[in-house]
Known about the structure:
The structure is a single chain. Strand 1 (91-92) and strand 2 (101-102) form a beta hairpin. This protein starts with 14 loop residues before the first helix and ends in a 6-residue tail after the last helix. The protein has helices spanning 15-18, 28-53, 65-82, 104-116, 124-134; strands at 91-92, 101-102. It is mostly helical.
Amino acid sequence: MDFELTDYFMCNFSPDEFIGTENEGLTIDEVDRKNIDEALNRMRGAIEDIQERYVPAKGRPKMNGDLEVVIKKLQIVFEDFSGQLARTRFAVSPYDAELPYKGPFMDFLKVVIWGHYENEKPSIGSLGEAARNAIGLRKS
């Protein structure tokens, strides 16, 4: 059922306050449809903009990616409280099978991460590689 604008004069507000002068002569239903169409067009434009910007990751997800995110956050804590960079004295030794990754930051990671996990803690190899990637050190 279409209501004419004159039906709303009984409610003590002006037509300009209710629907604006740009909609003069339209019924309330027509104004509602116009507003909905405009909102849908804005939404459609926003969705198209997002779709154009979105670039899906190629290939498989990064191995130990979640672990690297945690390590990057722990890097901030380590550097703030120790006063030294995480990469300082971070050493990788392929000749030491027990402790191939060494340094103050690795000691900190082992205490924090291995202390948090009980049975499913990452191996020293995966922890060290994730730490090396997270702090931006290349393999030598």
